[in-house]
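Progress report, Aim 2. The chain analyzed during this reporting quarter is listed below.
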Amino acid sequence: MGNLTIHLAKHLRDIHFGGNWTDVNLKDTLANVSIEEAQQQVNSCNSILTLVYHMQYYIEKITPVFEGRALQASDKESFTHPTIMSEEEWKAFQSTIWKRVETLANHIEVLPEAALWKDFTNAKYGNYYRNIQGIIEHSHYHLGQIVLLKKILRS
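Predicted structure tokens for the chain:
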């Protein structure tokens, strides 16, 4: 069994690093995506780069709350990624994401289970559970889009 927070942290890691029941994860999916592919637009869809940035934006923004700091995020900024032009910048960006995911997962793991049902900074944002589960669902949703875009780009 175990604490629910341990399971949530594992699920977050599994989406990013592998081991989830869908057998697809972000790190392996991006491993052989070039910066050119990541930047390429398919019809009116967001690029892989835009989706990856959007996914990590929320991870980056909720982590400070687990460290006792204020929530400072804006949905409208969640698609505005920095310019990444080289393979080195693309790989460095991914490396930053893996560190952020691990930091957030570590915070979730040690969160007392009772804290899951407390307001996440403000009642209008729901509780901690809703926000953690939301990040997990959001990541799966966009991971599916990334997998499809990668297949389209390579077809």
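The mean pLDDT is 95. Residues 119 and 135 are 16 Å apart (CA to CA). These observations will guide the mutagenesis work planned for the next reporting period.
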